[in-house]
Design goal:
Oligomer: single chain
Number of domains: 1
Largest sheet: none
Distance between the termini: 24 Å
Radius of gyration: 17 Å
Order of helices and strands: HHHHHHHH
Shape: globular
Mean pLDDT: 80
Helix content: 55-70%
Number of helices: 8
Amino acid sequence: MELTRRDALLALAGTGIVASTALTTGETDGALTDADIESLLDLAEVLYPSAVEPTAEFVETYVVGRYRSNDERLAGLKSALQVVRRTSVRETGRSLGALDIETRDKVLRATGGDRAYPDPEGTTAQKVRYHIINDLLYALYTTPKGGELVGNPNPTGYPGGVEAYQQGPRTDTD
């Protein structure tokens, strides 16, 4: 299943962010570079189930929409990305984008973000968890496509269409 720009807009709507703030994909006010978006896409490939194909369009639309009006949060994201990139070079001698998915997973684990409690003002591991891991997973599971993977086809903020309110809740016997 491929995630599209539309999926990113649906995820943003679920967070209460007005879609018009995210409609300028490609325009990051100079704050996020193409390398930042590419790194996030590389990490999304690690974090998302194999059935999901994240696209640069999905990641960029979500990230730009989510961080556009919050400079402090954007600085935290860029700092967390720098930690992952430095860890990649330190652990493997290569850039994050040059690694296969399994090695990227090892690099992400080497940051400690997989075990840390998310805190935007905590340790570097906590920042990686907060700004990268949790945010990318939240982007996935608040889309209808991602929600389907965990049994929630109608995530918060997504209207779900006519079928959603004309049918009763699903049960295990359905």
